[in-house]
Predict the structure of DNA oxidative demethylase AlkB.
Amino acid sequence: QPEEIEPGVALLRGAASHLASDIHQQLGAILNISPFRHMFTPGGRRMAVATTSCGPYGWISDQKGYRYHSVDPLTEQPWPAMPVSWIHLAHESALLAGFPDFQPDSCLINRYQTDTQLSLHQDKDERDFKHPIVSVSLGLSAQFLLGGMRREDATIKILLMHGDVLVWGNQSRLRFHGISRIQAGYHPVLGDCRINLTFRCAN
Ligand code: MD3
Ligand code: FE
């Protein structure tokens, strides 16, 4: 039963906490195929967030730009499969938020350490913005910044905690957002980092 924190933003507090060990185990298998790496922005900066992907498409960034691609540039192989339980979690979360036919074809996996920030940006590399994005936060808590439709718009802070699931759709799908800080600590399953899964319809 989601809490609408802003129009188009549905928060399912703790909805993934009971799946943490399963997700962590499946993440280990994914990382054996496609490990975390620091991609470079088109402008040549090394990203602070370490990323990988699973599913038919993975999100990549290099000097040619940001895009989705069916092959992992590191391994030159397809991305690992999206675990069925992950697809189910994303699908059920979207359903509760009012998106009954969300079928993600990409899951971007982000890893943050306590010194990692993610500057304000919009997610607009997907083909059709009518689809929501479902995000799952695991491990250390993060101070999330939610802005407006313009970079200079005011931001609100939301503390994203272990197990939180958010569905970002409709009028909030193209809002600026970022991560300003990760709370130091140690999570019993995830250790000294925060992992975020974002489920998307890329194509
Ligand atoms: C609001 N990830 O991968 S998740 C990203 O914590 C990204 O790793 C952050 O921003 C993270 O692009 C934030 C929450 C999130 C994800 C997608 C959004 C918020 C969003 C898309 C539109 C608006
Ligand atoms: Fe984003």
User: Anything to note?
Assistant: The chain has one domain: 3-200. The chain has a mean pLDDT of 98.
